[in-house]
Design brief:
Alkaline Phosphatase, subunit A; 4-stranded antiparallel beta sheet; alpha/beta; 18 strands; 27% helix; globular
Length: 572
């Protein structure tokens, strides 16, 4: 026997002797009991690293510079900031598209929206009507479908914006209930300024005149902003939508869903209307911020996040729940109210905004918290994507990733837990609708993050009207400028995208372009033709698909409470 082995044996004997002595003493038995309990607790914590509950909080058009944890010093966001303090803050978190509909499709499926037909070749890149026939195809696999199969209770509360029906007003082929959600309370489309008196028109400003004529004939109210609820059956709760206390109602629904599911894993997607225009804020928040109605809306959303975190604490679910906060794209910098007030947010140092693949349009907040499992107070400056949420939570739920399709997202857990320091995204492809606009390359042996633009929108950062006085920047024709050679930036040195590099200022200029073009070729070969869900035919309003809560089609007006009892209903 070696000396070290003999010493180890002696130490073991002494330790067991001490433990036996402790156990023999009655007054010390309680201490041993606590030790055993602590061991059991540690075992439970290890087990809880799988099958957590999941809460995904998504803002709409929120700028990365609007939050305190990303540097804002004038807006009050203490609850979101606390989430960041207790979790990981991603500083290079990228939306897969700078527009609502395609970005949300990518988020749910973990795939570039071009793969599912959710990227438009036409001028309009989002759904405008609940009575359109396009939407997220049923064949797409969402994280909600996979978690539901694993026994999770699943709910979507708030904005959907991924379609409703295909051929009839009740086939629900694109509805949340067809994509793995048990419970839905919210809007099928989005809130428009047209639907709030005195807020101006999106349609007259940014959509072709031929389409506007159709809308005017049909009646603009048939955009059909309505609160829809699904609990075993579909019910329109309110039509048209009232903004009064809307965030309070959405928050109440979210809290009640959590309270109904405290004993088993659940998935909650709380998809805010804040801060998409038309802006609104409840009475308790109106006029409180330093940034007008926009700031009021941000601070009300932060309050809502606090309510969700509080209910987790109340039911001892904090350590059992992964919470994620983000925005579907960057702030909408062109948004000015009819009275001249700025209704677009702040993208910090980053150029551009919504509908643009400049960093201001796609670099969004990315905050994840899971106490005891992922790092607390960490900042990660590696390229990540909103598509990464799909594989991350699917693996945590111990569900099987689809093997019959390409998943473009990557599991974030190794990065969040500090097991690795590099993102798995060597390349990220930035689409403007269905057109490949730019590519991001983060070489494995370099700190540089190269970004190549093939075309850019005709956007003037100094002009509050943005792109040709339209509501958003468009992606083709006279609205863009092609670049030959492409524009090249190194975001690690120039995150503001101020000065394009040239062969004279970057010795590897043509080498970088060659690598990027090869990556584009490989990516393009991975794409397959799919039906265009945002074609003009799928986008247009179809009267036979129009949901209406009253018997008279031209007067869709009703108001119910969330319990289903009728408050008032008008049909004439």
């Amino acid at each position: 026997m070696s000396g070290s082995a003999g010493l180890e044996r002696i130490l073991r004997r002494e330790i067991f002797g001490v433990l036996a002595f402790i156990y023999a003493r009655k007054k010390m038995r309680h201490l041993l009991f606590l030790i055993i309990c602590q061991c059991a607790t540690n075992s439970v914590k290890t087990h809880s690293a799988s099958n957590p509950s999941v809460i995904l909080l998504m803002a709409d058009d929120l700028g990365i510079g609007d939050l305190g944890c990303y540097g804002n010093r004038t807006l009050r966001t203490p609850n979101i900031d606390k989430l960041a303090e207790e979790g990981v803050t991603l500083t290079q978190h990228i939306a897969a598209s700078p527009l609502c509909t395609p970005s949300r499709a990518a988020f749910l499926t973990g795939r570039y929206p071009i793969r599912s037909g959710m990227a438009a070749f036409s001028r309009v890149g989002v759904f405008l009507f609940s009575a359109s026939s396009g939407g997220l195809p049923f064949e797409e696999v969402t994280f909600s479908k996979l978690l539901k199969q694993r026994g999770y209770a699943t709910a979507l509360i708030g904005k959907w914006h991924l379609g409703m029906n295909c051929e009839s007003s009740n086939d629900f082929c694109h509805h949340p209930l067809s994509h793995g959600f048990d419970y839905f309370y919210g809007l099928i489309v989005t809130n428009f300024r047209d639907c709030k008196p005195g807020q101006g028109s999106v349609f007259l400003k940014g959509v072709e005149k031929s389409l506007v004529i159709t809308i005017q004939i049909a009646g603009i109210t048939l955009v059909s902003l309505a609160i829809v609820q699904y609990i075993g059956l579909l019910k329109i709760i309110q039509q048209p939508l009232s903004y009064e206390n809307l965030t309070e109602r959405l928050t109440k629904e979210a809290v009640q869903f959590i309270e109904r599911n405290t004993d088993a894993p659940f998935l909650l997607v709380l998809s805010y209307l804040h801060v998409h225009t038309a802006l609104y804020a409840s009475k308790n928040f109106r006029g409180r911020s330093k940034h007008g109605l926009y700031g009021d809306a941000v601070e009300e959303m932060d309050w809502s996040v606090g309510q969700v975190l509080d209910v987790l604490e109340k039911y001892n679910l904090t350590d059992k729940t992964l919470v994620y906060f983000t925005s579907d794209q960057g702030a909408h910098v062109e948004e000015i109210s009819s009275s001249g007030e700025v209704h677009g947010g702040y993208n910090g140092i980053y150029k551009g905004g919504k509908s643009m693949n400049w960093e201001g349009g796609i670099r969004v907040p990315g905050i994840l918290r899971w106490p005891g499992v992922i790092q607390a107070g960490a900042y990660i400056d590696e390229p990540t994507s909103n598509m990464d949420i799909f594989p991350t939570i699917v693996k945590l739920a111990e569900a099987q990733l689809p093997s019959d399709r390409i998943i473009d997202g990557h599991d974030l857990m190794p990065l969040l837990q500090g097991e690795v320091t590099r993102s798995k995204h060597e390349f990220l492809f930035h689409y403007c609708n269905a057109y490949l606009n730019a590519v991001r390359w983060h070489p494995g042996n370099s700190e540089s993050v190269w970004k190549v633009f093939f075309f850019t929108p005709n956007f003037s950062p100094e002009d509050s009207n943005g792109c040709y006085d339209s509501h958003v920047c468009f992606c083709h024709g006279g609205f863009i400028t092609w670049h030959d050679p492409p524009l090249l930036f190194d975001l690690s040195r120039d995150p503001e995208e101020k000065v394009p590099l040239t062969p004279e200022t970057e010795s590897r200029f043509y080498e970088i372009l060659k690598v990027v073009h090869l990556a584009v070729d490989n990516h393009t070969r991975s794409l397959h033709a799919v039906p265009d869900q945002l074609s003009w035919d799928n986008l247009l309003w179809k009267p036979w698909l129009q949901l209406c809560c009253s018997s008279l089609f031209q007067s869709c007006y009703c108001d119910y409470d969330s319990e289903g009892s009728q408050l008032e209903m008008h049909s004439g």
